Amino acid sequence: MDFSFLDVYKESFIHGFLTTIEVSIVALILSLVLGVIIAVFRISRVKPLEWFGTAYVEFFRNTPLVIQIFFFYFGLPSIGIDLSKFMVASFGLAIYTSAFIAEAVRAGIQSVNKGQMEAARSSGLSYIQAMWHVILPQAFKIIVPPLGNQFINLVKNSSVLALIAGGDIMYAADEAAVDYDVIPIYIFVACLYLVLTIPLSLIVNFMERRWAKQGSR
Amino acid sequence: MDFQVIFTKPNLLFLLDGLLVTLEVALLAIVFSFVFGTILGILRYTKIPVLSHLAILYIEVIRNIPFLLVIFFGYFGLKQLDIDLPITTSVIISMTIFTSSLIAEIVRSGLNSVDRGQTEAARAQGLSYIQTLWHIIMPQGFKRTIPPMVSQFVSLIKDTSLAVAISLPELTHNAQIIYNKNFNATIPLLLTVAVIYFVINYGLSQLSRKLEKVLSVY
């Protein structure tokens, strides 16, 4: 196994590794915000909001991430909107992931007993207050493990950045593959991703097991 | 924005060609990864020394790396080892390798969800371990795996679009070739292709919901 490509491409890989982390974190934050909003839309009693939430979730869950990224990268410039690659990647990943997060959040919220909302509302809390102070804290433990899985998927999915020369880990691999044997490069890249994903997946497993023992509350 | 470009005969046929490749690759990969993933999942469930450990290693490594990397391995990696496969075969193999690790976890958690008392009762009746697994655990466990399995297959269909990276002539790739020549048709083409994927995947999800209802009799 010849890992001499590292002598030349060390910088690219470090930069790629950091870009992957950066894009994943920015996309995670954006997708959490979007996901919670869409989840609240989906369970809202205002029909147009509910329809919008459902359409959003179903559309983005059922179309490929590649198409969404291409839409931002190739589609928008064709009507004169130019975004940086970093923005394309963050928005693309965030929109795709938010559809899944919305589903996880919705399932969590709906697992909280209906009486909780009724009690909170009749105590004089507004809908938003009741959601924020009463329902979401209880739903939290049910929501977090699937969110962890979505974050792992997000890190893996950020590799589509390579398709638009986005400077992530996979892109560094693509660059190095031009002059060196690909198998050692791919093994090295696999290790870089595992360094990111395995700890996350251990944390998710730990939370699932611990919270499953405690029951849902 | 130019929607006209899509509706010329050669372009429509070209997109159709791409769709057929997408469907062919997806269908074969679904069948293979179902079989391979089920075997892996059962191996992990049984806790047979060595074999189950190998299954765990395989599952944990493969499902924690990006699918795109598996595609590159299956295409450029094998090429370097002088294994020259047709591109379609290579993608089907990569998809099977990747998806079976995820199917294996679904199968395992389905099997784990069956109450332990079932195994104990069956063994006490004199069934062997294999008989218990086959006649008692698997039929009960598999029912619960249908919804997550279908959503995994939906992911697989979406993931075929990643093969655009190695220029597999599938739907996304063919759309890209058309809009590279017709800049103004970029958005219309991406929207059209998105709708095609949506119809297939949404249809599949709805079907699985129906199936779930039919099967959840007990």
TrEMBL record, chain B:
Keywords: Amino-acid transport, Cell membrane, Membrane, Transmembrane, Transmembrane helix, Transport. It is found in: Cell membrane. One of its GO terms (molecular function) is transmembrane transporter activity. SUPFAM superfamilies: MetI-like (SSF161098). One of its GO terms (cellular component) is ATP-binding cassette (ABC) transporter complex. GO terms for biological process: amino acid transport. Its main location: membrane. Pfam families: BPD_transp_1. InterPro entries: AA_ABC_transptr_permease_3TM (IPR010065), ArtM/GltK/GlnP/TcyL/YhdX-like (IPR043429), MetI-like (IPR000515), MetI-like_sf (IPR035906). The keyword Cell membrane applies. PROSITE patterns: ABC_TM1 (PS50928). Residues 19-208 form the ABC transmembrane type-1 domain. It is a multi-pass membrane protein. The chain crosses the membrane at residues 20-43, 55-75, 87-107, 183-204. NCBIfam families: HEQRo_perm_3TM. Belongs to the binding-protein-dependent transport system permease family. This is ABC transporter permease subunit. It comes from Shimazuella alba.
